[in-house]
């Protein structure tokens, strides 16, 4: 989703007035409805800045990635509500109604999951905390992908994006099979939101198969992005940019193959090179 804005452009030593397509960023207020001791409770969960569109996928992926739900069966519904507001006439509120509220701990959620479009979930401080909810590692040597597929995947992702070519200001995450075919992608101004949308969409459509898939992201790779991929059991993650130290530590801990700085003729494998075919 984008909109035209007036800009002053400098090019070839001259200034000119023109219009530019800009990616829209709007707040989304996420709330939960769940039962506690036979009473229904409505609770604000968080506010995230996102690109409008696929909001249900975003919330579904977010709840799964943070293990507030462990399967789609835990959700009764995800629905936008409230008045349409603002310049773009949008509903900026969404309610997830849960059937299973076993993992709902509002105090912990509010502490850990304050989010925004550039930072993502920044509250976690310990790798060990993940082992409480994620005990199994990804497969140590499967799937295997070739070096050619790795260098091609960012281009495939970019060519399939509907918004990047228009605005240049939006991130994407894509799910690929081990042959390099793009299964699905989602875009958002926030890297974390794009990945949440992708995982939410592929969960709902039953498309996730860790034995034969990998995920490519348009930007750098940090702890929170690797954590989200880990929850799907997918064991290969590729990024155009650099990983952070904590992202590498997390990938190492759970056998994820982490590939960064992907260019047309080069890339770096930071962890577990057993899944990359180098011949």
Main pleated-sheet profile:
6 strands, mixed
How many strands appear in the DSSP assignment? 14
How much helical structure, as a percent, in the residues? Answer: 25-40%
Distance between the termini: 42 Å
Overall pLDDT level = 86
Query: How many helical stretches?
Result: 8
Evaluate the radius of gyration: 19 Å
* CATH class type of the largest domain: Alpha Beta
Sketch the topology as an H/E string, one letter per element: EEEEHEEHHEHHEEHEHEHEEE
How many domains comprise the coordinates?
Answer: 2
* Beta fraction: 25-35%
Q: What is the overall silhouette?
A: flat
Which secondary-structure class do the elements indicate? alpha/beta
CATH architecture of the largest domain: 3-Layer(aba) Sandwich
Contiguous uncertain segments of 5+ residues: 114-126
CATH topology of the largest domain: Cytidine Deaminase, domain 2
Walkthrough of the structure:
With 279 residues, this protein is of the alpha/beta class. The chain folds into two domains: 26-128, Ubiquitin-like (UB roll) (Roll); 145-277, 3-Layer(aba) Sandwich (Cytidine Deaminase, domain 2), CATH 3.40.140.10. The protein has eight helices and 14 strands. It has helices at 55-65, 106-112, 130-133, 147-160, 164-167, 191-204, 223-230, 245-253; strands at residues 2-11, 14-23, 26-36, 39-50, 75-81, 93-98, 145-146, 171-177, 182-188, 213-217, 236-239, 257-260, 268-271, 276-277. Strands 9-8-10-11-12-13 form a six-stranded mixed beta sheet. A four-stranded mixed beta sheet has the order 4-3-6-5. The chain has a two-stranded antiparallel ribbon with strand order 1-2. A hairpin with a 7-residue loop joins strand 12 and strand 13 (268-271). Helix 1 packs across helix 6 (191-204) and helix 7 (223-230) packs parallel to helix 8. It starts with a strand and ends with a strand.
